[in-house]
Amino acid sequence: MSKGLMETTSKFLSYVLRHEPQAIGLELDSEGWGEIDALIAGAASEGRPLTRELIEQVVRDNDKKRFTLSADGQRIRAAQGHSNKAVQLQLQERQPPAVLYHGTATRFMDSIHQQGLVPGSRHHVHLSHDPDTARSVGQRYGQVVVLQIDTQAMQARGCKFYQAENGVWLTDQVPASCITEV
Ligand code: HQG
After folding, report:
1. Is the CB–ligand 1 distance for residue 44 below 6 Å?
2. Which amino acid residue places its CA nearest to atom 2 of ligand 1?
3. Considering 21, 64, 90, 144, which has the largest number of Cβ atoms within 10 A of its Cβ?
4. Is residue 99 packed enough to be buried (19+ CB in 10 Å), middle (13-18) or exposed (0-12)?
5. pLDDT tens readout for residues 74-113
6. Residue bearing the CA closest to ligand 1, atom 3
7. Which UniProt keywords apply (predicted)?
8. What is the pTM (predicted TM-score) of this model?
């Protein structure tokens, strides 16, 4: 399977499983699961041939483990990154490391200083356990800045942390006072 096909398929799966399942007539339950047969049929009706083998390979080899198969292999979901309102992952609260990182672009910093980090269209603010990952996330939006997040200060203010099944840390928002630039 070519790297290009794997990447295009990963982007397509991110689009339908995180954001717009209705674009291919797919239904997701509140835990984000969609039937693989319905995904394949919906994708085909939009002129995008998908096979179970291709889907399984993308799930297995994806660099960020973005997708998970159900135990019976019949359903698939995105681990994190959702904006779709039908999805409301029941995430377990977890104790984070003392410091987490968030990569963003310099042009967002005025607003971040004022409001802290907010989820935007997604359900959560995404945080990384290492600065390198945060750097590559931030680079998607322009000149990158890596922010260090004081998770203990956040917890003292009542903020909660969750970890997606691919290891990405999630929280509802990050107060400006808990952020320093690396
Ligand atoms: C910024 C990728 C202005 C925030 C990554 C970010 C991640 C603010 C952008 C996942 C702000 C939202 C998510 C504020 C936050 N004012 N801008 N108050 N608060 N922002 O894409 O974290 O490769 O929704 O810094 O690995 O960049 O797709 O979030 O720049 O895990 O699997 O608003 O997406 O994963 O952007 O990325 P996003 P993100 P995948």
Report:
1. no
2. 137
3. 21
4. middle
5. 999 999 999 999 999 999 999 999 999 999 999 999 999 9
6. 108
7. NAD, Transferase
8. 0.95
